[in-house]
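Supplementary Methods S3. Input chains for the assembly prediction are listed below.
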Amino acid sequence: METMNRPALVRTRYAETDQMGFIYHSHYFAYFEVGRGGLARESGMAYAGFEREGVMMPLTGCSAQFVRAAKYDDLLAISTRAASYSAIRIRFEYEVWRIADRAARLLATGHTDHLFTDLSGKPARLNRRPALWEMTQKIGAYDTFPDLVARGLVDAPS
Amino acid sequence: METMNRPALVRTRYAETDQMGFIYHSHYFAYFEVGRGGLARESGMAYAGFEREGVMMPLTGCSAQFVRAAKYDDLLAISTRAASYSAIRIRFEYEVWRIADRAARLLATGHTDHLFTDLSGKPARLNRRPALWEMTQKIGAYDTFPDLVARGLVDAPS
Amino acid sequence: METMNRPALVRTRYAETDQMGFIYHSHYFAYFEVGRGGLARESGMAYAGFEREGVMMPLTGCSAQFVRAAKYDDLLAISTRAASYSAIRIRFEYEVWRIADRAARLLATGHTDHLFTDLSGKPARLNRRPALWEMTQKIGAYDTFPDLVARGLVDAPS
Amino acid sequence: METMNRPALVRTRYAETDQMGFIYHSHYFAYFEVGRGGLARESGMAYAGFEREGVMMPLTGCSAQFVRAAKYDDLLAISTRAASYSAIRIRFEYEVWRIADRAARLLATGHTDHLFTDLSGKPARLNRRPALWEMTQKIGAYDTFPDLVARGLVDAPS
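Predicted structure tokens for the full assembly:
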């Protein structure tokens, strides 16, 4: 189960900065997607596999709150969890942490809401798709700190 | 005052599509920015002018809700208004409409929250900056329908 | 024919700036695409129509040369022409001009090379697709200056 | 020296796909930038450090040739080298490889040309900046295959 708590790592790109010298806010939604894709991969089924099985997950809503700005070349850890889900929809929640000097600082939080649909855009009842349903049920909480310590990215609290 | 209600027009780009065939959600935040920039320009002071005056408007939060998906080459109207503001922060709200066949259909709504800061990132009290303060006070509600009719983009309701 | 010479207009976005304060270079390729899409629309068949007819135009190469940097909120005119083509490939060439103070200054030039393929990615012989072939043959040179003058965006040379 | 040959790894994002189902071409220029940033980091001085020292590297030109298309969730290795340089300019060359099934396939090649300038945009003679000059001189050829083998990402040729 501990692999569920493995955050995706992202290094910010120059392409993602803006003239304020910060990462432009819309890119956090791409970072969230990296976290979501990593969560899918950790749980044994890459997101690309969903689409090959004929399931898409279009967004119906999203939000982000920004605590501190990210800058170019920052190393970010994206913690992701499935906050709630049913047979037809799922909500993911995210935390974006900057890893520097063996410590993690919270930069942003956010969420995305998704429908499960078939390739034509009609709702797909996920509980009739056992592999994806099982994956969804496996996804737990995101106390990612132990994993960051285990990977040597941050120090354990003393 | 009616110029306050002039929505910005955006044509979606192929670069903004994703493999579902829809516009990827993060680009709506760039469309919101186009709406915000248009609102600033309509009110007599381009956003670029704020920065030249030493005022930045970093985001502290944002959200979007998606009603219908946009596709490549859609013509979108971005309605923007200042929903609330004080001397140190401002909230913008947005509606994204698709213009086609002389009618408008709502695709998405959203908001962004901004701080006013100086170039070093410290809060800037806007009421001590008359030009920007005046602009902020001018920004009203966004019944943009009359403008879309006036520009011949949609038909008036019969 | 003069509509062939109508450049697409793009206003640069804050999202497209980088921390040098310039438009990040990769966005010029999206601007080129706007020019390409505008050219297709001017010639009577939107690019989206090609894909509905089962023709895709994947890139095989591209380049850009930068003369002057674009900045936030610049108004750009994208001049596009089909420099050469055959039944299986096409090359577009581009010029990006900044429109300001009723004059145009060259910012960048570039090209893109495309294959014509069917939806499975196999080469599609365009001369067997009359509508697209006719459109391709119509596309001429890009002396766009008269159009910019006619639209009142720049002054005619004295 | 062998660290010079360590390619940057990038996993493609859903945000980077287009409705053809491929990675949109402009993102390769962001991947090239990731390779460039990795090269700078390997050589002992992060690119962010250049700007802190007052040196920027605006692009004057770039190109890419596409051999095979990348798709969502591909793992890419970006090989980067300084192909030529002088005190005032530098050319980087890139190869983008897809890593899958313990083998690497070439997807794209490209180049970027840069000027060295100070923060006001004026040319900066790099040979008067010892740290950056030394870094530039250290950057060698990019036979990255041994590194990919060493990291267990691809098999050694038999």
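The interface with chain C takes residues 19-20, 22, 25-27, 29-30, 51, 56, 58-66, 69, 121 of chain D (CB under 8 Å). Chain D is about 25% helix and 30% strand.
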